[in-house]
Amino acid sequence: ARLVFDSGGFRYELYRTLVKHRDYDTLLVVWRQPVGGGPRAQVLLKPLDAPHERDRHARAREEVNLAMFLRHPNIAEVYGVDTHEGVDYVVSEHMRGCFLLTVMDAAMIAGRKLSPAFAVSVATDVADALDYAHGREDDTGRKLHIIHRAAGPLRIRLSFNGRVKLTNFG
Q1: Which of 6, 31, 48, 68 is exposed most, by the fewest CB atoms within 10 A?
Q2: Is 103 helix (H, G, I), strand (E, B) or coil?
Q3: Residue 117 to residues 94, 121, 124, Cα–Cα distance (Å)
């Protein structure tokens, strides 16, 4: 089935499924374009879990609202939530590249190890992102104390030019 819908002033059109695994969130790469025309860009859509479980769904929406406060070069930006056919989707930045898990698997298959310098570089960028998120304040100066709760190799994206982004806040 081809996913195309308008919501929140944007038209969304499925490009491809990035992740579909029972142990992780489904991630869809879509084209997003203003309904009235204009430039289109690729973004990620992640269906919010448990719309039938009000408390869990409300908590997930609150996490998305908090994640929208995060503006850091090593954190994938969360744009908000749009809805299609009763399903809420978290809309976030998509960075072309691969997951850290992919790089780790490729090294293992090739019988190689990732260099200590590479590991330190990625870990430093992720630690900086986590520290920033935990210390972030809202518009009134109140600390938000945001924690990730699931940082790992399938939540860390590596761009083709060496940038590191922690994904999946919210």
Answers
A1: 6
A2: helix
A3: 26, 6, 10
